[in-house]
Amino acid sequence: MDFDKMIKIEGKRVVQILDNIFRGWDQYAASHGCQKIETVGKTYMACAGLASCEANVPNNILAINSTRRILNMAIDMEDFVKRFTYGDGLNIKIRIGIHSGKVIAGVIGYHKPQFSLIGDTVNTTSRVCTAGNNGQIRLSDEAHQRITNAGGTGNQDLYFIPKLQEMKGKGEVKVHILTKKATNNAFRSRIGSAIKKGKEKGIVDIFSKLSKKNKSSEAASEDKPKNSTVEDIKQLV
């Protein structure tokens, strides 16, 4: 969404809107065993998998792959923000970038010291996020591989659209866009029907039509840069 437009319409009330949203996301971070790192304006950054932050996380949560945990949190974050509007009923849409890799972590500063994450993983997560469109959850190829290689309950319900994306300082990079549930259900239903009837051509046609539909919808919406997160997550409102 256009954050400047939101500020222009809501004025000081934008602080209360962000506070309500971020407080909800904080609860999702705790429930999924993730750690909020910081918020900067409209940007929310969180991660999972830092050993120093997971001492009190229940074992049943730790048993879930850390990248899958951050993805679960991202899905909840996206659903939660749909409850909010601004102005004359305008929807708030976010974009989320998820990447997996090594970071350097530590407390920085004397006055108001802050726990920070440093490294190329943070920068790459930001690129994955800013390259996306509002309303999208995007994973880097590394994050996508961690989820698919882990297996486990629920992974069969995840569907991604791979895409090559030009990123600043990175060149052409492969990303994976999480598809919407309604699209997933229609896709699975049509594939299942085609398989039952033994119409292999039907399956080819389905893939072809879905591919054309995805390309046309992506072409219709321009990418609008902003800012993002790590293993994790950076979030733009």
Notes on the structure:
With 237 residues, the chain is of the alpha+beta class. The protein has 8 helices and 11 strands. The chain has a 7-stranded mixed β-sheet with strand order 1-2-11-5-8-10-9, with helices on both faces. The longest helix has 21 residues, at 200-220. Residues 182-188 and 198-237 have low confidence and may be disordered.
Shape: globular
Indicate the multimeric state: single chain
**SSE sequence, one letter per element:** HHEEHHEEEEEHEHEEHHE
Count of helical stretches = 8
- Cα-based radius of gyration, to the nearest Å: 19 Å
How is the largest sheet built, in terms of strand order? 1-2-11-5-8-10-9
Largest sheet: 7 strands, mixed
Structural class, from secondary structure content? alpha+beta
Percent of residues in beta strands?
Answer: 15-25%
Summarize the structure.
The chain has 237 residues and is α+β, with helices and mostly antiparallel strands. It has helices at residues 3-10, 13-31, 59-62, 66-81, 120-130, 141-150, 181-197, 200-220; strands at 35-40, 43-47, 85-86, 90-91, 95-98, 104-108, 114-118, 137-140, 160-167, 171-178, 233-236. The chain has a 7-stranded mixed β-sheet, sandwiched between helices.
Give me some keywords for this one:
single chain; 237 residues; alpha+beta; seven-stranded mixed β-sheet; two-stranded antiparallel ribbon; 8 helices; 11 strands; 22% strand; disordered C terminus
